[in-house]
Write a structure and sequence with these properties.
With 238 residues, the chain is α/β, with parallel strands linked by helices. It has a domain of 88 residues: Alpha-Beta Barrel (TIM Barrel). α1 packs across α2 and α6 crosses α7. It is globular, with a radius of gyration of 17 Å. The N and C termini lie close together (9 Å). Bound molecules: cytidine-5'-monophosphate. Cytidine-5'-monophosphate (C5P) binds next to β8 and α9. The site of cytidine-5'-monophosphate has 15 residues, from β8 and α9.
Amino acid sequence: MNNDPRVIVALDFADAGAALALVERLAPDQCKLKVGKELFVRSGPALVEKLAALGFKVFLDLKFHDIPNTVAQACRAAADLGVWMTNVHALGGLKMMQAAREAVDKTATPPKLIAVTVLTSLSRADLCQVGLDVEPAVQVERLARLAHEAGLDGVVCSAQEAAMLRRQIDPDFLLVTPGIRPVGSDSGDQSRVLTPTLAIAAGADYLVVGRPITQAADPVVALQSINVEIAAFLGTTP
Ligand code: C5P
């Protein structure tokens, strides 16, 4: 029994029925689950509570970014749903992240609170357009340090950034990485991808995996083979 599976399956489905059809075939000792904006807007808190009641650890990926009080209350509401992890945008600033941390810590079961640094869809030119004349990697490091200073548990980052952040920030700081592609799978619209083994070797704690599992001919087999690959690298049992 693995109490801390490293794979977070991104439930990028348009409705609860499709998400639950997959979830019925998965088990909480094989993976955690991520609910993002589309599924949450369509299916709401009831689905999140249902997934948690099934025993899954749920990452509620709504990337809150607003004034400190509003974000703090939203994070508190997420905690009340029983989620394992939730997130905010580090660009909301130190005070916003501190307010979120404080609000979450007052709840009965505080979820892990992490920050998005720079969206991986943004290039150097995109940052410049919004007034940030800085290399994305430099901005990622700056915002990760700010999230750490605010007492957050970690950041979402690309697997390519994981090694740099692992060297710069303390070992307990969680690195959650999307853009994972097992060898031989289609990279889809992700341009900077790493295999599960390379991401873990770079220092990632948790891997967010969507289409390589959700669109696989057999999602259970696809998840199992990623777990076997990770276990082989770590020298543990899958
Ligand atoms: O299907 P795929 O494995 O590319 O899904 C990756 C998941 O991670 C999606 O839910 C996507 O929204 C999310 N994500 C990402 N890149 C980021 C942040 C989140 O792909 N920088």
